[in-house]
Predict the 3D structure of the following.
Amino acid sequence: MATSGLWDWVRGYVIIRVTGRMIEKFVNMAAARHIGLYDVTTLGPGMITARVSVDDYRRLHPILRDCQCRATVDARVGAPFLIAALGRRKFLFIGLMLFVAILYVMSSILWTIEVVGANPHQEQQIRRILDDMGVNRWTLLSSIDCDTIRSEITKSVEGLAWAGVETQGTALIVRVAEKVLPDAPVFPIDLIASEDAIVVKLIVLAGDACVAEGQTVVAGQVLVSGKSASGAGGDAAHARAIVEGRVWREGRAVVPLNVEERVRTGRKSIHYRVLWGNLDFRLGRVGSFEAFDTKEYRRDYRPGVEFIRIERYELALTSTRISRSEAYALARAAAEDSIAAKLNKDARIVSVSERVSDENVMPEAVEVILTVETVEDIARPRERQ
């Protein structure tokens, strides 16, 4: 959470909804008197929402009267309101303090030990090593030296290629990997076409060419065989070659002239979650909005304890009509993005052609079709069974 946001929470603020005929005058008078209105959102003619500190909210009343406006409080946020609520519930406050104290103590000790990637015999050895080092349940997390444990496991357990040790919350995680010797290749490796293309360059370094420059190929077709035709029966080999092809890709996008989008209405709800191990505590009331978007602010207070502030903003569906030129720009950008997602990193663009829908054919939308011609590496290896 940013420092300014934390300070606003400590001071306390309210989300207000202001209605009236002189809204603009109200905003100008508030600014002239150095009253901070933040996140001002226009909901419609004569209606806005804004965030204002508790102190400044009290100073708004004379301005509201002068401008013939009315303010209602949609939400109260911050420490003053939380303290006031707890003050009316002393036993709840005491219980909360005890809960925080217990949470602090319980999050300072080791609860579980997990061993990942080891066979049963290796796991038994690792747990014996941890026990000999005094690392077990109820051990203080601050006394655990992960580097020393990792070094001892790597030295004492045979057949390990790698070991890693870390604490996650109140758990100790030991991850290991066994040494594995790769199997020698048995089958030859062919090079096949990754795309439909016209071959423009073919340089064979190992294996036998199955196509020629200028030839049209389809995806999956063998370009270079990994099994040499020379010699008795042919010898298994890995085909190696430089194969470039001319490839065509198409990107298509349609944008309607009536664009619907969801915008914030200014109403929101705030609730909190406290995560401790497998436990999930929820505080506050969740807004029952039909459509909404969410922002989360996370903060770790102790290992294994996470505090989450969740803001839920109500959304309303609005419709806007755009011009054909605006729709064309959006459709062109979307078509370019579609092609970019399909291009290989080594692709060299040779040409780009464009087709745009006729207004008489599509009066309520604009369609853009882009065709991109590239030259790129079209060979990929495949093991022959």
Remarks:
- The CA atoms of residues 202 and 243 lie 5 Å apart.
